[in-house]
Structure formats: C-alpha cells, structure tokens
C-alpha cells in the first residue's frame, strides 16, 4: 500500500490526491482521503479503483476542504485477502475524548488476529476485516492524554511492519516500525510539510525531500514544525530489500540511493554472475527494465524492446484472482515479433513468483520465432511468503518453494534460467561485502525464509517456518 499526508497547504486534499496518484503502483484496488478543516470538521471519501478516476473530480474534492489531509492507496495483502469491501478502505477514523484521528497504514501487522480476538472480547466493535483497524481500537483503550501518546501506546502492542501516516485536527503524524520494514519520507512543501511512502510522490507536488523517517521514529508535525522521538525499543533496521527490486518506483530514492541505479546494478551483477551468449537483452516491462539495461551495459549485448507493454493495464501481480492474473499477462504484454525472429534472447524480469508470467512470455517469444530463450531474474528465488505488506501467495503456490532451479527451468521450458544470488543482490543495493549472515542488513525473508519478526498469526494458522 501507499500512504501520504500534507499539512499547511490550502486545499491540501488536492496535494494528497496527487501524492496518491504517484504512489498508485503500491496499491490499485482502492483509495481514500480524510481531510480536516475547522469549518467542516473531518471529511472523508473512499473509492474503489484508481486515484485519477475518483479524486480528480471537483465535486468530490470540494467535499474535502482544509489544510490537513492524509490518503491511502490499497491492495490487499496476507490476512486481508479476498474481495475488498469499501469498509476495508483506509484511512480509518476514530473519535476519542480529545478529538478525532485518522490513520493510514502500509505494512502488515503480524499479531493482528490475536489483538483482534482480545479487543473483541473486551468490547471493541470492528468495522472492517483489515489488520490496521486494531490500531484505532488499541488507541481507544489507551489512557494516553493526547493522540500521539495513545498511538505510541497502541503501536507498542503491535508487531510486524508499519509505516503510518496519521492526523488529528491540528497534527500530521508519521511513524515507522522499529525495523523500518516499509519506507516513509518527509518533505517540505511551501510553508507546509508532507509525509509519503516514497520520494516520487514528493516530486509530483513540488515538495523538497527532507529526509527519511528513521526506523522506530515518530514525527509529530504542526504549525510550529516537526518534533521527533523514538518510542520503541531500538533494533537493528531490516528494510525490505524487495522495495529495491520491485515494489518502489525507479525514480524514488531509498536509503540515499536511486532505485533505478540499484536496479541497473542488479542487472550488472546478474550479467557477471550468469553470463550467456545471445543476440538481445530484453526486459519484461516495466518491472524488469532497469535490470535489463544493466545486464546489457555489463555484457555488451544490445538492449531491445522485445516485449511491448500496454500502458493501460495495471500490475498483473496485484490482480487478486488467479484467472484475472492469467488473462493479465496477455492483455498487458505482447511480443515485438519483427525484432525477435531468429534471435537468441535474454529476458530479464524482476522476480518469478508463481511462474505464470514467465511461462506465458516464453510461449509468446517462441511463437514469435526466437531461436533461444534465456531467463535472468533480478531477485533470488521467491521461496517464502511475505507477511510484512507485500502480497505473495501461500507457500505451495510459489514455484521456488517446491522446485529447484533446474526444475523451474524445465517447467518454464526455457534454455536457461538464472537468479541473482542473495549476496549479489546485497552488493547491488550497496553492501560491498554482501549479506551479513549473522545479522542481515535487510529483510529478505521471501528469499531466505529468515523472518525478522515472528509471523505469529500465520504460525497460529499452521504456517511452518
Ligand atoms: P508470477 O507470474 O511469477 O506469479 O509473477 C511474477 C511477476 O509479478 C513479476 O514480473 C513481477 O514483476 C510481478 N510482481 C508484482 N508484484 C509482485 C510481488 O509483490 N512480488 C513478486 N515477487 N512479484 C511481483
Ligand atoms: Fe520485503 Fe520480502 Fe521482507 Fe516482505 S519478506 S518485507 S517482500 S524482503
Ligand atoms: Mg513484472
């Protein structure tokens, strides 16, 4: 998901809508905005579908006045899967003795089932099926004297990944979990401030990137400025390495590095680790593009657009059901036949999850008359589900959970298949010595199976680590 918020700008909801539009790649199912103005109080709107189709209409935006607003773009992740109901669309809102507050959450709470059970037993009435709603109920039960205190107390009971943008009548609040699994950044816009999942959404509103919110940090922003503190027990950060590979936009800056540059470096690493003789390097667009460019630069094999993407389709992976996803590949990607015929082609993609995409693409490429097809993948085999806010299927549906690299190659029917090594990936994100096996610098659980936060709910549901 993507979260965004603005304080200190007239008609701030318009800025929030733009920010959400720039974060659309993080969630395409639905979006919501909460805005506050002293005249109208808290107002909210939640809609299914793209930001551009909803939050651009003057008639809707006029209902969201005020200098303070937050927004959320949603896609359902582990635990909250299934048809999204409008009541699951964030931000969530709560009325407390000291006034209202709204929160927008990116990440996944790993003990949400347990918290929900306990809260329901003690009288909380849940409105949604979302793990994030627990936070509002925990805040309602807190004795804290102001909303940031209540949020702090609530979040100390929450495990897992959270990057949160929240608001009261007068404050914009940002928080990151102690491991800093999901991103969150601070920007300056005019006399106001913005919080965003990624820097690309600061660019769109002309905000200046100030800094990242630190893992474990809470910032409370009002007319006087930004106050920062660290309410949680300190921990070694474990940022999601997959944000670098796929999830974030290439024009964002993560950990001081351009995501694009990192992806190009991943492609270079791949070319060094797993070279192959061929005529063309083609990306599986768009997610494989920067890595394919890196592969081509390193290997000297020409880069070409062998697959053309229909720009009017979303991200396939994010379509919730299998049949739609299957359709998606064909609806979204088509082979550039004239270019491919008779050629030995290296295809570069960011990841193989179920293998649906790769299989379809291989068929299309061979249909078009390619002489050879070699897959190079910009991440290690995805063998474990993510429980921290990226939608991966159950373990059994992950190709790499049940097959070796050779078996995957045969299953996909390609001439060769190579994944970047975990160390190679760490080098590409800037860790010159690779992965520190004793204390890894990132979360890489979907590749390594080493979960930095115990996935308590999933273990209760029978998940085997
Ligand atoms: P598959 O068809 O193998 O199930 O999916 C792989 C494709 O899904 C890749 O091309 C990748 O770009 C895309 N993808 C989208 N979202 C995700 C995600 O959350 N995790 C992974 N691993 N791949 C994703
Ligand atoms: Fe990121 Fe993978 Fe960790 Fe999930 S499990 S947070 S996708 S690295
Ligand atoms: Mg892709």
Taken from the alpha-carbon principal axes, the silhouette is globular
Count the E strands. Answer: 23
Number of helices: 18
Derived structural class:
alpha+beta
CATH class of the largest domain: Alpha Beta
Share of helix, binned:
25-40%
Mean pLDDT: 94
Question: What gyration radius follows from the Cα positions, in whole Å?
Answer: 22 Å
Assembly context of the chains: single chain
Do you know the CATH architecture of the largest domain?
4-Layer Sandwich
Low-confidence spans: pLDDT under 50, at least 5 residues?
A: none
In the residues, how many domains can be counted? 2
CATH topology of the largest domain: Glutamine Phosphoribosylpyrophosphate, subunit 1, domain 1
Strand content: 15-25%
Give a list of the ligands.
guanosine-5'-monophosphate, iron/sulfur cluster, magnesium ion
Major sheet: 7 strands, antiparallel
CATH homology-level superfamily of the largest domain: Aminohydrolase, N-terminal nucleophile (Ntn) domain
| Distance from first to last alpha carbon | 25 Å
Going across the major beta sheet, what is the strand order?
3-2-4-1-10-9-11
Explain how this protein is built.
- The protein has 465 residues and is of the alpha+beta class.
- It folds into two domains: 2-237, Glutamine Phosphoribosylpyrophosphate, subunit 1, domain 1; 259-435, Rossmann fold (3-Layer(aba) Sandwich).
- The protein has 18 helices and 23 strands.
- The strands form six sheets. It has a seven-stranded antiparallel sheet with strand order 3-2-4-1-10-9-11.
- Helix 5 (133-141) crosses helix 6, helix 9 (259-273) crosses helix 16 and helix 11 (322-332) runs parallel beside helix 13 (356-367).
- The protein starts with a strand and ends in a 5-residue tail after the last helix.
- The model has no long low-confidence stretch (mean pLDDT 94).
- It binds guanosine-5'-monophosphate (5GP), iron/sulfur cluster (SF4) and magnesium ion.
- Guanosine-5'-monophosphate is lined by residues 246, 284, 287, 315-317, 349-358, 382, 390-392.
